[in-house]
Design brief:
The chain has about 210 residues and is mostly helical. Helices cover about 45% and strands about 0% of the residues. The chain has a domain of about 120 residues: DNA polymerase, domain 1.
Length: about 210
C-alpha cells in the first residue's frame, strides 16, 4: 500500500484549522466534527497560487522534460489554443473548479507536493472517499473525469485503479437519497394534445415547437 504520510514536507498552502501531529501525516482528524469534508471545502477561501509542480488546470506545460522537442512560440500558442477549446465552456469551468478542489484537499490533508502532480493512486482514492454519504456517486465520478482530463491534456500518467472503481461503487451505494433526482412523470399523448391546441400556427416560435 502506498505511504503518502511517510513523505517529507507538504506544500506551504493555507494552514488548516488544527495542527497535524507531524507535517508528513495525513491528518484526517483536522476536519472539524461539525463539518463534513464537502462543507469545509465549500467554506474555504479561494485557492491561492499553488507552489507545487502542478500546472494550472488545462494550461499546457512546455518544459523540456515533458516536451523534449523544441517548439516555436507560434507552435506553443497553437497547442494551447487547441487544448483550451477541447471542452465545452461549461465543462471546462466545472473541471477547473474540481482541480482546485483536489489541490485544496491535498493541502488540508498534508499530502506532499509530489503526489499532487501527477496524482497518487492513494490520494485519488482518499479524495473520492471524502465525499462518502455526502453526494451522489455520479458527482464523484465527474470529479475523477475532471482530474483525468487535467492529466491527459498534459500527457501525464493517470493513476486510477481497480480500488478507485470499487470506492466509487461504494460511494454510489451509500449516497443519501436527497442526492439523487427522482424519476419525472412521462410525457403522455394527452399532454401533447393540450400543447398542440395552445400553440398558434402563425407564431414563428410556436411553429418551431410544432
Amino acid at each position: 500500500m502506498d505511504h503518502i504520510s511517510q513523505a517529507s514536507q507538504p506544500c506551504p498552502m493555507p494552514q488548516p484549522q488544527a495542527q497535524a501531529s507531524s507535517p508528513g501525516d495525513m491528518a484526517v482528524s483536522m476536519t472539524p466534527a461539525s463539518q463534513t469534508p464537502s462543507q469545509q471545502l465549500a467554506s474555504t477561501p479561494k485557492l491561492p497560487a499553488h507552489p507545487s509542480l502542478a500546472p494550472k488546470p488545462f494550461q499546457l506545460v512546455m518544459d523540456q522534460g515533458h516536451h523534449p522537442i523544441p517548439l516555436s512560440q507560434h507552435s506553443q500558442q497553437q497547442l494551447q489554443l487547441a487544448l483550451s477549446h477541447c471542452l465545452a465552456a461549461s465543462t471546462s469551468n466545472s473541471y477547473v473548479r474540481t482541480v482546485k478542489r483536489f489541490l485544496l484537499f491535498c493541502s488540508h490533508k498534508w499530502v506532499p507536493c509530489k503526489h499532487h502532480w501527477p496524482d497518487n493512486e492513494l490520494s485519488l482514492c482518499t479524495f473520492a472517499a471524502s465525499h462518502t454519504q455526502n453526494v451522489a456517486g455520479s458527482t464523484v465520478k465527474g470529479y475523477m473525469a475532471a482530474l483525468k482530463a487535467w492529466h491527459a491534456t498534459n500527457n501525464m500518467p493517470w493513476h486510477g485503479s481497480a480500488r478507485l472503481s470499487y470506492i466509487l461503487k461504494g460511494i454510489h451505494n451509500v449516497a443519501p437519497s436527497s442526492s439523487e433526482h427522482g424519476q419525472r412523470p412521462p410525457i403522455t399523448q394527452a399532454m401533447l394534445h393540450i400543447l398542440h391546441k395552445s400553440l398558434k400556427p402563425n407564431d414563428s416560435f410556436d411553429c418551431a415547437v410544432l
